[in-house]
Specification:
binds ligand C2E; binds magnesium ion; 295 residues; 8-stranded mixed β-barrel; alpha/beta; 9 strands
């Protein structure tokens, strides 16, 4: 069809070309209305304490129920949200929802010894805004949750944009009782040398390190070194992307504190979380090793 209309020229009416170029603008326009139209929801993925396989908290992950494209995962729209600045509004929404939920979980599971935490991703547009600190202070005052309930996940690349300012912001946030987790650790290039400079409590090892090679190759050695270094710096470690029992077992031998991944549970809706907590409550907070799926 393109040929008939003029050789190699890209024909904007060619359906194939159009569906590719369609992406950006309409999606951006739709995203501007998505919160008001209640299309944005927050899913929660379990984070498990490896030593006893007990649920320790959840990571909040944004989802968008797009009217024509169906449910979009974070990777499909977070980049647009960041470029357009819409991430600020979306991020505020996730923060308030997540804290509201955490307060709800504490009411649902009063017998658990350590209150469940909620870990929320923060992008640079949000962090470097003057009022994020005020916003979080305000939210923490509104939802009466124990100190340490809120964990903010920050990526290393974000910190490197403006290290001095980042350190200052993180210290403020910590003073209000929020914990800081360094997300996607192991994917950047300056990880180790800068680790001690940033005020953080937790390191989240990226799933690429957990996944690659499982127990063979160099990944186990890198994992082992990262966990050891984190512990030397008195930081806890969450391993992302735990997909098999072998992953969990290996990280447990390294004394890695927490695991997160499909083996322990996929991101789930508020309703599914409520059902899970209800089940845990009736089993007196105990949690069995999940059934292995597949072989
Ligand atoms: P992330 O913070 O590193 O989140 C972990 C991602 O890994 C999630 O993807 C999660 O669904 C996925 N995941 C968890 N366990 C496994 C596993 O066992 N195997 C595999 N293959 N994947 C697993 P998701 O939800 O698509 O989020 C992608 C990224 O988008 C997040 O990466 C985070 O950087 C960003 N994001 C998500 N929600 C928010 C948000 O509310 N605000 C901001 N600023 N960013 C967000
Ligand atoms: Mg994260
Ligand atoms: Mg991560
Ligand atoms: Mg990651």
């Amino acid at each position: 069809q393109a040929k008939r209309n003029g050789g190699d020229r890209i024909d904007i009416f060619n359906p194939a070309t159009r569906s590719e170029g369609e992406g950006r603008l309409p999606l951006e326009t739709d995203l501007r209305m998505a919160i008001d139209r209640k299309q944005i929801s927050v899913f929660y993925q379990p984070i498990t304490r490896l030593a006893n396989n007990q649920l320790a908290g959840f990571e909040a992950l944004m989802r968008w129920d797009h009217p024509t494209r169906g449910r979009l995962g974070a990777e499909d729209f977070i980049p647009i949200a960041e470029e357009t600045g819409l991430i600020v509004e979306l991020g505020s929404y996730v923060l308030s929802q997540a804290l509201e939920q955490a307060a709800e979980w504490h009411r649902a599971l009063p017998r658990v010894r350590d209150p469940l935490f909620v870990s929320v991703n923060v992008s640079s547009r949000q962090l470097f805004r003057q009022d994020l600190v005020q916003e979080i202070r305000h939210l923490l005052a509104r939802e009466t949750v124990p100190r340490g309930t809120l964990r903010l996940e920050i990526t290393e690349s974000l910190l490197m944009e403006n290290p001095e300012r980042a350190v200052e912001m993180l210290e403020w946030l910590r003073s209000f009782g929020a914990r800081i987790a360094l997300d996607d650790f192991g994917t950047g290039y300056c990880s180790l040398s800068y680790l001690h400079r940033f005020p953080c409590d937790t390191i989240k090892v990226d799933r690429s390190l957990v996944r690659d090679g499982g127990l063979t190759g160099t990944s186990p050695l890198i994992l082992k070194s990262i966990v050891a270094l984190a512990h030397d710096l008195e930081k806890e470690v969450v391993a992302e992307g735990i997909e098999t029992k072998d992953h969990a077992d290996y990280l447990r031998t390294l004394d890695c504190e927490f695991g997160q991944g499909f083996y322990y549970g996929e991101p789930m809706s508020v309703k599914q979380v409520a059902a899970l907590l209800h089940a845990l409550n009736s089993h007196k907070g105990r949690r069995e090793e999940p059934e292995e799926t597949g072989t």
